[in-house]
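dumping this here before i forget
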Amino acid sequence: MRRSLMLLALLPTMAACSTDCSTTTNVATAAGTIRDVAGVALASADAAASEEMRSPERWALRASIWTASGPAGAPLKGHIIAARLLYPSGMLLYAVPATSSIVTPYYVTSLQVVLPNAGAYASARDALMSGRVKLVLETDLPGLERLETTLTDARYQPAERRRCPYT
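structure:
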């Protein structure tokens, strides 16, 4: 009886430890600048592969395009039709559907696709970390129908294990 009461007293603590205490995310990011044919910077871009290590695991690939000068300086805002990430060889890594909404006034767009498994995440992560992945944008703007940049600034942020505050 005493042992059962002790276990019952510990249940809230154990339940709290099993929720968010072990949620972690690994993220590989590569960034670049989108320029027109004259070399004028139109926007900044990055792509990120993320792996949420929880139950169940989740993997995603995101491409974001933004401008530091705010909404007035975003010539691409509302004009991106499609985005593709290409391996350094030119083969398609992922086509990212242009269906996401603008995240903040500074974002032109942020596009995301859910990756099917850990292998797809590893492939995307390794490609981004090469610093040679190309981001290709298709727009409906005359003279800017196809824009591309190489995402050279690659970084990896490993997951940090969080300790449960109740242990």
